[in-house]
Protein backbone atom coordinates (compact mmCIF):
# COMPACT_ATOMS: atom_id res chain seq x y z
CA UNK A 1 0.00 0.00 0.00
CA UNK A 2 2.82 2.39 0.83
CA UNK A 3 4.90 1.48 -2.19
CA UNK A 4 2.53 3.28 -4.55
CA UNK A 5 4.62 4.74 -7.35
CA UNK A 6 3.76 8.05 -8.96
CA UNK A 7 3.83 8.53 -12.71
CA UNK A 8 6.28 11.15 -14.04
CA UNK A 9 3.41 13.56 -14.68
CA UNK A 10 1.99 13.08 -11.19
CA UNK A 11 5.44 13.55 -9.70
CA UNK A 12 5.87 16.87 -11.51
CA UNK A 13 2.43 18.05 -10.34
CA UNK A 14 3.30 16.95 -6.82
CA UNK A 15 6.64 18.80 -6.84
CA UNK A 16 4.91 22.03 -7.86
CA UNK A 17 2.17 21.63 -5.27
CA UNK A 18 4.49 20.91 -2.36
CA UNK A 19 7.47 23.16 -3.12
CA UNK A 20 6.13 25.96 -0.92
CA UNK A 21 5.57 23.67 2.05
CA UNK A 22 8.96 22.05 1.95
CA UNK A 23 10.93 25.29 1.59
CA UNK A 24 9.12 27.90 3.67
CA UNK A 25 7.59 26.11 6.66
CA UNK A 26 8.78 23.75 9.36
CA UNK A 27 10.81 20.90 7.85
CA UNK A 28 8.74 17.73 7.28
CA UNK A 29 8.38 15.58 10.35
CA UNK A 30 7.59 11.93 10.64
CA UNK A 31 4.07 10.62 11.04
CA UNK A 32 3.39 7.26 12.64
CA UNK A 33 1.00 5.73 10.14
CA UNK A 34 -1.15 2.62 10.34
CA UNK A 35 -2.68 2.66 6.84
CA UNK A 36 -3.67 4.90 3.93
CA UNK A 37 -6.46 3.95 1.53
CA UNK A 38 -9.28 5.33 -0.59
CA UNK A 39 -12.88 4.47 0.27
CA UNK A 40 -16.20 6.15 0.94
CA UNK A 41 -16.88 7.83 4.26
CA UNK A 42 -19.00 5.34 6.21
CA UNK A 43 -20.16 7.50 9.12
CA UNK A 44 -21.40 10.96 10.08
CA UNK A 45 -22.60 13.92 8.03
CA UNK A 46 -20.42 13.19 4.97
CA UNK A 47 -21.47 9.54 4.69
CA UNK A 48 -20.97 8.21 1.17
CA UNK A 49 -18.37 10.78 0.07
CA UNK A 50 -15.30 9.34 -1.67
CA UNK A 51 -12.29 10.12 0.54
CA UNK A 52 -8.71 9.18 1.19
CA UNK A 53 -8.32 7.81 4.72
CA UNK A 54 -5.11 8.43 6.64
CA UNK A 55 -5.19 6.18 9.69
CA UNK A 56 -2.61 7.28 12.25
CA UNK A 57 -1.20 4.96 14.88
CA UNK A 58 -1.35 5.38 18.69
CA UNK A 59 -4.17 6.33 21.02
CA UNK A 60 -4.41 7.91 24.46
CA UNK A 61 -7.44 5.75 25.38
CA UNK A 62 -7.94 1.98 25.53
CA UNK A 63 -11.62 1.41 24.74
CA UNK A 64 -12.73 -2.18 25.23
CA UNK A 65 -14.86 -2.26 22.03
CA UNK A 66 -12.24 -0.48 19.89
CA UNK A 67 -12.21 -2.04 16.42
CA UNK A 68 -8.82 -0.54 15.49
CA UNK A 69 -6.71 -2.02 18.27
CA UNK A 70 -4.02 -2.67 15.69
CA UNK A 71 -3.20 1.05 16.00
CA UNK A 72 -2.33 0.90 19.71
CA UNK A 73 -2.49 -2.52 21.39
CA UNK A 74 1.16 -3.51 21.22
CA UNK A 75 1.91 -4.59 24.80
CA UNK A 76 0.55 -7.37 26.99
CA UNK A 77 0.52 -4.87 29.84
CA UNK A 78 -2.13 -2.80 28.03
CA UNK A 79 -4.10 -5.96 27.22
CA UNK A 80 -4.18 -6.77 30.95
CA UNK A 81 -5.23 -3.20 31.80
CA UNK A 82 -8.24 -3.45 29.46
CA UNK A 83 -9.15 -6.91 30.82
CA UNK A 84 -9.00 -5.68 34.40
CA UNK A 85 -11.61 -2.98 33.68
CA UNK A 86 -14.10 -5.19 31.85
CA UNK A 87 -16.72 -7.15 33.78
CA UNK A 88 -15.99 -10.85 33.77
CA UNK A 89 -19.04 -12.01 31.81
CA UNK A 90 -18.22 -9.57 29.00
CA UNK A 91 -14.60 -10.60 28.57
CA UNK A 92 -15.37 -13.48 26.20
CA UNK A 93 -16.81 -11.09 23.61
CA UNK A 94 -13.64 -9.00 23.44
CA UNK A 95 -10.98 -9.25 20.81
CA UNK A 96 -7.81 -8.40 22.73
CA UNK A 97 -5.14 -9.63 20.39
CA UNK A 98 -1.75 -8.00 20.98
CA UNK A 99 -0.29 -6.68 17.71
CA UNK A 100 3.33 -6.36 16.70
CA UNK A 101 4.19 -2.67 16.54
CA UNK A 102 6.97 -3.07 13.98
CA UNK A 103 4.52 -4.74 11.58
CA UNK A 104 1.67 -2.27 12.15
CA UNK A 105 3.28 1.16 12.38
CA UNK A 106 5.36 2.89 9.72
CA UNK A 107 7.26 6.11 10.26
CA UNK A 108 6.58 8.10 7.10
CA UNK A 109 7.63 11.63 6.24
CA UNK A 110 4.91 14.22 5.66
CA UNK A 111 6.08 14.42 2.03
CA UNK A 112 5.67 10.67 1.49
CA UNK A 113 2.22 10.72 3.10
CA UNK A 114 1.20 13.64 0.89
CA UNK A 115 2.46 11.80 -2.22
CA UNK A 116 0.37 8.76 -1.33
CA UNK A 117 -2.73 10.88 -0.64
CA UNK A 118 -2.30 12.60 -4.00
CA UNK A 119 -1.88 9.31 -5.84
CA UNK A 120 -4.88 7.67 -4.17
CA UNK A 121 -7.00 10.75 -5.00
CA UNK A 122 -6.83 9.75 -8.69
CA UNK A 123 -7.18 13.36 -9.74
CA UNK A 124 -10.73 13.77 -8.46
CA UNK A 125 -11.05 12.89 -4.75
CA UNK A 126 -10.83 16.10 -2.74
CA UNK A 127 -11.63 14.84 0.75
CA UNK A 128 -9.27 13.35 3.30
CA UNK A 129 -10.30 11.73 6.58
CA UNK A 130 -7.72 11.67 9.39
CA UNK A 131 -8.53 8.84 11.72
CA UNK A 132 -6.82 6.48 14.10
CA UNK A 133 -6.06 5.70 16.84
CA UNK A 134 -6.23 9.30 17.99
CA UNK A 135 -4.86 11.58 15.24
CA UNK A 136 -4.50 14.67 17.45
CA UNK A 137 -1.67 12.98 19.38
CA UNK A 138 0.41 13.75 16.28
CA UNK A 139 -1.02 17.21 15.61
CA UNK A 140 2.37 18.97 15.52
CA UNK A 141 3.50 16.75 12.67
CA UNK A 142 0.15 17.14 10.91
CA UNK A 143 0.23 20.94 10.56
CA UNK A 144 2.35 21.14 7.41
CA UNK A 145 0.47 18.24 5.77
CA UNK A 146 -2.92 19.85 6.41
CA UNK A 147 -1.71 23.26 5.29
CA UNK A 148 -0.61 21.78 1.96
CA UNK A 149 -3.81 19.81 1.44
CA UNK A 150 -6.00 22.82 2.26
CA UNK A 151 -4.13 24.91 -0.30
CA UNK A 152 -4.96 22.33 -2.92
CA UNK A 153 -8.66 22.46 -2.09
CA UNK A 154 -9.02 19.30 -0.01
CA UNK A 155 -11.79 19.22 2.58
CA UNK A 156 -10.44 17.66 5.75
CA UNK A 157 -12.35 15.58 8.28
CA UNK A 158 -10.69 14.72 11.59
CA UNK A 159 -12.05 11.83 13.67
CA UNK A 160 -11.12 12.44 17.31
CA UNK A 161 -12.10 11.16 20.75
CA UNK A 162 -12.43 14.75 22.04
CA UNK A 163 -9.76 14.61 24.74
CA UNK A 164 -7.10 16.75 22.99
CA UNK A 165 -7.56 20.43 22.12
CA UNK A 166 -7.81 21.31 18.42
CA UNK A 167 -5.77 24.49 18.96
CA UNK A 168 -3.35 25.25 16.17
CA UNK A 169 -5.53 23.69 13.48
CA UNK A 170 -6.86 26.13 10.86
CA UNK A 171 -10.51 27.15 11.40
CA UNK A 172 -11.55 27.02 7.74
CA UNK A 173 -11.75 23.77 5.76
CA UNK A 174 -11.43 21.37 8.69
CA UNK A 175 -14.42 19.49 10.04
CA UNK A 176 -14.15 17.52 13.30
CA UNK A 177 -16.14 14.36 14.05
CA UNK A 178 -15.77 14.32 17.82
CA UNK A 179 -16.55 10.97 19.39
CA UNK A 180 -16.54 11.24 23.21
CA UNK A 181 -16.47 7.84 24.84
CA UNK A 182 -19.22 6.58 27.14
CA UNK A 183 -18.93 4.16 30.06
CA UNK A 184 -19.46 1.30 27.57
CA UNK A 185 -15.82 1.90 26.59
CA UNK A 186 -14.76 0.84 30.13
CA UNK A 187 -12.60 3.94 30.46
CA UNK A 188 -12.68 6.09 33.63
CA UNK A 189 -14.81 9.25 33.25
CA UNK A 190 -11.87 11.60 34.01
CA UNK A 191 -9.87 10.02 31.23
CA UNK A 192 -12.52 10.00 28.51
CA UNK A 193 -14.48 13.23 29.16
CA UNK A 194 -12.72 16.61 29.15
CA UNK A 195 -15.47 19.20 29.41
CA UNK A 196 -13.38 22.22 28.41
CA UNK A 197 -11.93 20.45 25.39
CA UNK A 198 -15.43 19.48 24.24
CA UNK A 199 -16.57 23.09 24.69
CA UNK A 200 -13.65 24.20 22.52
CA UNK A 201 -14.89 21.89 19.77
CA UNK A 202 -18.30 23.56 20.00
CA UNK A 203 -16.66 26.68 18.53
CA UNK A 204 -15.37 24.67 15.57
CA UNK A 205 -17.02 23.07 12.57
CA UNK A 206 -17.75 19.90 14.56
CA UNK A 207 -20.39 17.26 15.23
CA UNK A 208 -20.48 14.89 18.20
CA UNK A 209 -20.83 11.20 17.48
CA UNK A 210 -21.57 8.49 20.04
CA UNK A 211 -21.28 4.72 19.81
CA UNK A 212 -24.44 3.18 21.32
CA UNK A 213 -24.89 -0.37 22.57
CA UNK A 214 -27.95 -0.07 24.85
CA UNK A 215 -30.57 2.28 26.29
CA UNK A 216 -28.48 3.50 29.22
CA UNK A 217 -25.93 4.86 26.76
CA UNK A 218 -28.57 7.28 25.47
CA UNK A 219 -29.17 8.49 29.04
CA UNK A 220 -25.44 9.17 29.31
CA UNK A 221 -25.50 11.08 26.01
CA UNK A 222 -28.41 13.20 27.27
CA UNK A 223 -26.47 14.00 30.46
CA UNK A 224 -23.36 14.98 28.49
CA UNK A 225 -25.39 17.11 26.08
CA UNK A 226 -26.71 19.03 29.10
CA UNK A 227 -23.29 19.29 30.76
CA UNK A 228 -21.48 20.62 27.68
CA UNK A 229 -24.52 22.37 26.14
CA UNK A 230 -24.27 20.62 22.79
CA UNK A 231 -27.12 21.49 20.38
CA UNK A 232 -29.06 18.29 19.61
CA UNK A 233 -28.81 18.73 15.84
CA UNK A 234 -25.04 18.35 16.21
CA UNK A 235 -25.34 14.97 17.93
CA UNK A 236 -25.15 11.70 15.96
CA UNK A 237 -25.90 8.29 17.48
CA UNK A 238 -24.30 5.31 15.82
CA UNK A 239 -24.97 1.61 16.56
CA UNK A 240 -22.05 -0.40 17.89
CA UNK A 241 -21.57 -3.50 15.79
CA UNK A 242 -18.99 -5.08 13.55
CA UNK A 243 -21.31 -7.56 11.84
CA UNK A 244 -24.28 -6.80 9.62
CA UNK A 245 -26.89 -8.57 11.77
CA UNK A 246 -25.99 -6.63 14.94
CA UNK A 247 -25.68 -3.40 13.01
CA UNK A 248 -29.12 -3.76 11.42
CA UNK A 249 -31.06 -4.86 14.51
CA UNK A 250 -29.40 -2.28 16.78
CA UNK A 251 -29.64 0.32 14.02
CA UNK A 252 -33.42 -0.06 13.63
CA UNK A 253 -33.92 0.41 17.38
CA UNK A 254 -31.48 3.33 17.52
CA UNK A 255 -33.05 5.21 14.59
CA UNK A 256 -36.35 5.15 16.51
CA UNK A 257 -34.58 6.49 19.61
CA UNK A 258 -33.02 9.28 17.52
CA UNK A 259 -36.50 10.37 16.41
CA UNK A 260 -37.64 10.32 20.06
CA UNK A 261 -34.69 12.36 21.39
CA UNK A 262 -34.04 14.74 18.49
CA UNK A 263 -30.59 13.35 17.63
CA UNK A 264 -29.32 12.32 14.21
CA UNK A 265 -28.71 8.73 13.24
CA UNK A 266 -25.44 7.64 11.68
CA UNK A 267 -25.08 4.31 9.99
CA UNK A 268 -21.77 2.46 9.56
CA UNK A 269 -21.91 2.10 5.81
CA UNK A 270 -18.49 0.46 5.42
CA UNK A 271 -19.52 -2.43 7.73
CA UNK A 272 -22.78 -2.81 5.85
CA UNK A 273 -21.02 -2.93 2.48
CA UNK A 274 -17.86 -4.87 3.25
CA UNK A 275 -18.07 -6.27 6.79
CA UNK A 276 -15.39 -5.74 9.44
CA UNK A 277 -12.32 -5.51 7.23
CA UNK A 278 -9.25 -3.34 7.23
CA UNK A 279 -8.35 -0.83 4.53
CA UNK A 280 -11.90 -0.10 3.37
S1 LIG B 1 -10.48 6.39 21.28
FE1 LIG B 1 -11.01 5.36 19.35
S2 LIG B 1 -9.08 4.48 18.62
FE2 LIG B 1 -8.75 5.04 20.77
S3 LIG B 1 -9.17 3.15 21.89
FE3 LIG B 1 -11.09 4.34 21.82
S4 LIG B 1 -12.20 3.57 20.01
FE4 LIG B 1 -10.04 2.91 19.82
Can you walk through the features of this model?
The two termini are 12 Å apart. The radius of gyration is 19 Å and the shape is globular. It has a 9-stranded mixed β-sheet. The chain has 10 helices and 9 strands. With 280 residues, the protein is an alpha/beta fold. The structure holds iron/sulfur cluster. Iron/sulfur cluster binds next to loops. The site of iron/sulfur cluster has 11 residues, from loops.
Which key phrases capture this entry?
TIM Barrel; disordered N terminus; 280 residues; 10 helices; 9-stranded mixed sheet; single chain; binds iron/sulfur cluster; 9 strands; alpha/beta
Report a brief summary of the structure.
The chain is α/β, with parallel strands linked by helices. The chain contains 10 helices and 9 strands.
Strand order of the largest sheet: 3-1-2-4-5-6-7-8-9
- Helix coverage percent: 25-40%
Secondary-structure content class: alpha/beta
Describe the global form: globular
GO molecular function, one term: metal ion binding
InterPro entries: 7-CO-7-deazaguanine_synth-like, Aldolase_TIM, rSAM, rSAM_sf
Protein name: Radical SAM core domain-containing protein
Domain Radical SAM core: 46-276
Amino acid sequence: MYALRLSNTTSRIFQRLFTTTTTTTTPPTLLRVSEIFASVQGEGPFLGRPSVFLRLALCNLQCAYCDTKYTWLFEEEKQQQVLARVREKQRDKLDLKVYQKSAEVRNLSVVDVAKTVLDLSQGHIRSIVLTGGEPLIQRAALYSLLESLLKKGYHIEVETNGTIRPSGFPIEGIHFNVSPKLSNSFQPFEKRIHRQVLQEFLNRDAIFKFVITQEKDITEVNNLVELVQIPRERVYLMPEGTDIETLHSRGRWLATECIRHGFRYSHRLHIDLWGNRRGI
